[in-house]
Each structure stands twice: as C-alpha cells, then as structure tokens.
Design goal:
alpha/beta, Quinone Oxidoreductase, Chain A, domain 1, Rossmann fold, 2 domains, 7-stranded mixed sheet, 6-stranded parallel sheet, 29% helix, globular
Amino acid sequence: MSAETFPAIIIDREGDGQKVSFRSIDETALPPGNTLVRVEASTVNYKDGLLLSGAIPLIQSFPMVPGIDLAGIVEWSDHPRWRPGDRVIANGWGLGERHWGGYAGKCRLDGDWLVACPDRFSAKQAMAIGTAGYTAMLCVLALERQGVQPDDGEILVTGASGGVGSIAISLLARRGYRVVAATGRLSEEPYLRHLGAASLIDRAEFAQAGAPLQKERWAGAIDTAGSHMLANICASLRYGGTVAATGIAQGADFPATMYPLALRGITICGVDSVHAAVELRQTTWKALAAELDLGLLKSMTNEIALADVIEVAPTILAGGVRGRIVVEVGT
C-alpha cells in the first residue's frame, strides 16, 4: 500500500541560491519529531516572504519546507501533553529555518513547540492571527507591563496596515488607547479607522535620520520597522515612555543615541515571538481569545491556496499586503 501523499512547498539549494517548488511528498520525507500534525491552515508573514525569496540567508539546511506558522490536528504523538485529535498551534522555534514548517499537509515536530488552539478559534481564525497577531498581543502586554495606560497619551503603531500593525491597532483601541497609525499608504485610512485608529501619520516623517532628541509626542509605540523609524520614535517618546520593538521592515540597524534613555528615561522593549516560553504563549493566546474582535479579524483577512503562497511572497516584502493572509493547507 503506497504512503499517503500531500502537497508541500519545498525550498532546495540551487548553486549559490535557492529554488522554490510546489510538489507532493509523503510522511517518509518528514524530519524526526515526537508529534505528527495534520496541517489545516497556515499564513504568510514578512519572515515567510524572506524565507521564500532568499533575500536574507535564513534557511540553515536544505531541503526546507517554509512556513513559520501552522494550525492543525494531532494525528500521533509520544509527547505527554498531546493526544490524537488535539487542536494545536505552532509558531517560531525555527520552523521554516531549521525545521520543516507549515507549508505542507503534515508536519512532524517537537511537541514542546505546540500550544492548544483556543476553543473560540477555528484553525483558519488562529492563522488569521498567526505570528503577527500573537506578536501584536505580546507588544501590547509589554507596554502594559511598563505601566503605559490609556490616559497617558497617544500610542504610535508603525507598519499599521500590515499584520502586526492591524491587529495591534484593534487590540489597543479595544483597551481604550488612542492609536495613531503610521503608514506609507494613506489611502488605507478607511481600513485603519475601521480597526480603531484615531488618526494617521505618514511614515515618511520617520523614515530619515532625525534629531537625537525631538519634541515629546508618544506615550508608547509598537514598531515593526527598526532603523531610522525606531530611532525617531525613541527620540520623540514622552518622558518615561515605552516602545515595543519587534521588526526590521526598514532595516536591522538602529542609528540612535543615548539621549532619550538618559534624559527622558524611556524604555525599549524587544519583543521576540520565536523563543517565547510556553507559559507566555499560553497567556498571550488566552488574552487573544478573550479580547480579539472576530468581526474585525475577518475584515482584515484574505484567504489563498497553498499553491499561491510563492506568488504572494514578493508582495508582502514590498509592503503590498493589507492585514492578514490565511493559507488553506488541509484538503
């Protein structure tokens, strides 16, 4: 009896670069792991775009199935936490870089990397949230841990029409914060106001080198850009303000000075979604299940087939994707 086959996106090394293809494989091709998940859905994040493009050499072994997120059902497990039929989510932990990820019909991985999918979410809804929404909530929680309150002043969110930004805006607005959305696409104003943004600002105001200490404007910020954007945010935070920094869409450099830290006591919170402890992941998904407006989530989500992911990757790198993309993997 032949083994069951399922679709997968495979990245192979080709010369000094890589080649991406869509083809069928079976379980015998999967790497080792103590838990086998039938993947129902995945998503497309900025990092997925990087993996598929090869623009940055992130992949550590070939061949590789990309996809840093997945949601599905456990088929088999030797892990004490999981049983066949359990609904689970995985993100981070090197999926798509060091270990085969979610762009395949099945994934065999370490059960320690999984969290239970909240009952409130279907697999597709969980992936509409995905790493982007999970990271957005991590950022919101980071601001609150630093004492940033709704009455303290405006909160700036960069990359506002992207995945992290879109969900961050909706979460902050629901908690009573006044959100200013920084975007390079001011035509998205109706969409961003629908999510809860009180006003918009052109990201070009932050894109170039600025003064090391600027007028105090923001009580807090969530930044997905890095580089000059993050430096200018730090320079314009109010005294004691906090920025949750979680992306490098503009660049990985940080051309800033010590002045905002030493003279205004600001806090820069680095937010990592890849290696966060299981307990923090569980807390974050519980908060998302309690607070996220599913109607708004639907309004910011588009759905594509697994075979279409390869074509979408360049668009997300170019900043041309609004909100979230759900990838239907299971058949």
